[in-house]
Amino acid sequence: QKRRFNALIAGLFASAALGLSMPVSAQQYKDEYKLSTVLGEAFPWGWGAKRWADLVAEKTEGRIKIKVYPGTSLVSGDQTKEFTALRQGIIDMAVGSTINWSPQVKELNLFALPFLMPDHKAIDALTQGRVGTKMFEILAERDVVPLAWGENGFREVSNSKKPIRTPEDVKGMKMRVVGSPLFLATFNALGANPTQMSWADAQPAMATGAVDGQENPLAVFNAAKLHTVGQKNLTLWGYVADPLIFVVNKNVWNSWSEADRKAVSEAAQQAAKEEIARARAGISAGDDALLKEIEANGVAVVRLSDAERDAFRKATAGVYKEWAEKIGSDLVKQAEEDIAKR
Length: 342
Ligand code: X2X
Prior knowledge:
16 helices, four-stranded mixed β-sheet, disordered N terminus, alpha/beta, binds (2S)-2-hydroxy-2-methyl-3-oxobutanoic acid, D-Maltodextrin-Binding Protein, domain 2, 342 residues, five-stranded mixed β-sheet
């Protein structure tokens, strides 16, 4: 008897909750939705955002129109404020890097643990496995609807001074780093002199010599023509990689019909898949066209042996340990397990 009554009450609450989540008046679509990215269409990242926008327009027959705002211009270029603006509804949608959102979502620092992910398969093991699912659950609790994983890529280190082969070589170098304090910790552990700044500030800082070096994926290095701002030494150390996440602000999402949500979600998955293929093109042994192009621009590329890479791993092991605890030991353990059996 009592059980039945409880079930009835629960049912009433459930339908009331459902009713409340629907606006009383007809759902209002905006004329245009603002999509934030850091990089523009010349980069896989910005290309992926534009592709998502185009696919959405096509699949919703123009009901949802999206404008892409590169350079995180909706937050005056301060990419570490993007996530907060997205939650607040200043930004409707985004294709964002885990690095830039990690100041607000500490679990996203996982991808920046030095030397956690040895190759692309390892990234996939995380994003496409239980770790990725867990992160999407965490994001879903923060007023955004995550739809797909894309990729910025493995971040290789460059500088204007000399070839980097050993941690000793990095000592004293002025390095531009981004986003989370974890990057400061890693470069401090190597004895470098890191400073945090936005991507917009980074390029002039390299041009004037205010900083000696930086770290970014090869596709970014090449499309941004970093060889023209003095970056003549590039070391392939693959210490971290940043995935991208395709998301929609929750209120915006809730304002759309079921069919349109499905269209936006499918469009994100397709665009993300194509974007990842671009982010990975030309940078591996079988397909190194992009690397060749970088070398042809006069950049000296250092390829580390396993032993040389290991020296960097050892030098940053303390940072890994300290940050694994901040991120959450269980999540890091899952990540390590899933990478081991990839
Ligand atoms: O600022 C960077 O280095 C960039 C473009 O890679 C990110 O937004 C993480």
